[in-house]
Sequence to fold (150 residues):
Amino acid sequence: MAYSAPEKAAFTAIFPAFAAVTDEAYVFWSARAARIVDPIQSCLAEDAELACMLATAHYLSQSGIGTGAESEMAAQGAGGFKRLKSGTIELEKADNARAASMGDWGSTTYGQRLFPMLKACFAGPRITGTGYVGGGCFNGFAGPLPWGRC
Fold:
């Protein structure tokens, strides 16, 4: 059964910065967020709803929807600014290597909160100095392991 995004009322109760989001925008962006959560719902377990809400908030912020600073900056076309000057006010955004390593998710605080949840569900096999650890019969590089003790 496909994952369904939380109702708009539940979302806006948790994230009041998006209280004025239109029904159409919420339906569109929450459906996209639900497609992210659906294949990893069992991994996310009780956090599936939160993950979907965070992804929805991330998408809405990037679209300039909402009353938060990130949304307002995106609405003005300055979401990814490094340096911004207006009259006597000059702002410079610090380099954040941690956020940069998250790709697109690192561009909003909502995505930064979501990224560790997604990463935990997509973590691949680990290679150690003594060999392969965990993950069934697939080593992630050369395909299935040749022995049948999985």
User: Anything to note?
Assistant: Strands lie at 83-86, 89-92, 126-128, 131-133. The longest helix spans residues 23-37. Helices lie at 8-14, 23-37, 41-44, 48-62, 69-75, 97-100, 109-122. The chain is about 45% helix and 10% strand.
